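Study the following:
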Amino acid sequence: MDFGNLLYLKEEISLILVMVLLLLFDLFCTGKIRRYFQLTACVLMAVHTLIHLDPMPDGQAFGGMYINSPILSVVKTILNVGTLIIFMQARNWLSRESTSIKRGEFYVLTLSTLLGMYFMISSGNFLLFFIGLETASVPMAALVAFDKYKHNSAEAGAKYILSAVFASGLMLYGISLIYGTTGTLYFEDIPAGIDGCPLQIMAFVFFFAGMGFKISLVPFHLWTADVYEGAPTSVTSYLSVISKGSAVFVLMMILVKVFAPIVEQWQMMLYGLIVLTISIANLFAIRQQNLKRFMAFSSISQAGYLMLGVIAGSAQGMSALVYYVLVYLFSNLGVFGVISIIEQRSGKVRMEDYNGLYRTNPRLSIVMMLSLFSLAGIPPFAGFFSKFFIFMSAAGEGFYLLVLLALVNTILSLYYYLLIVKAMFINSNELPIATFRSDNYTRVSLIACLLGVLALGIFSMIYDRISLLAFGL
């Protein structure tokens, strides 16, 4: 083995180093030094992100099981940025007496899931893909049940792990059928052995069912609302953005690379699932009063929009998908950042509690409003351009009716996003949420989200850069 190939794993090695340093800090630093734990975690994550901004060149290791390319490095960097923002937004929650002693576990578990996503993204073999998937899923279950003495968190953890085990079993059975019919697990070699026989179609269905759970596609979405509501808000935001974004990207890579010979079959399946996912999620979102459940159905709907880039199966679809994930990251984390800080300060998460919020906390209201406008796709915010590009990628492959249905659902989603804006700026409340000041970490994270929502819609060179790398995939 050429150990020089390990240089292609420098992002994974760097992340493991961050995890080890945080673990040592947690074990050996006490007293006044321990108050800098949050700062240390954020600084290490920021350094890890900055040193990998330059995309890695094409290469592979472990006999082709691990691959790398510039677009894969870009996706990992996007996940790094999201994780850093979540670390900053978790400040108040991790400072509570019941969770402060577990801060080290939170950082290590979160970075463990991120490491698993790295391996998923760079996998060139179903074996490494499944190892990465489980590396990401098992610590995530622990994060969902992090507040284990709270009934909702413990229930959410149980629902997540049971659903994840069932989904992983289905997926593994599908992978075994793929291996049985093609004789290989390497992504590059499998297409030569796929002829579209019924057994291979069934293998694809089982595999896709497992991935549908990770992405929260209808009808594999039933766990989402309960888990999002019961998990700590910082974990919920991580699930909604980082986990979902990586899973959708990996699914597209596998569909394009592995299942290209049966493209008509999987496009037909995706067509129906996209319509069902967006429509059902939007209808259920209108009925929600708990904002975490509301954002759960919002994230299911956004997953449907992400799948428009997947069904396109083109370089344009890939660039639109990556750009959409980047915009969605800033928009969704902006909303969850406001929900988190208000929940920590007041314990309120219902929509009616936000009535009159602008009178007492105008800055938080503005951040929330602009982030919701971006999620809804209102110009000139970045969410409008991300939806435009992903609609264009699907239309470019001839899915005009699908794009039309997605556009109709966009109008419906605008209605329920504006319900929150109406509550904050128009509805009256005799006892609104009290005025308070956010901590510095939360303020920086919300400013970063706000700048992302605004800047990504102005500077077109970001999409151009992603598009250039996607065409070189």
User: Anything to note?
Assistant: The two ends are 26 Å apart (CA to CA). The first helix runs from residue 10 to 28. Strands lie at 59-61, 66-68.
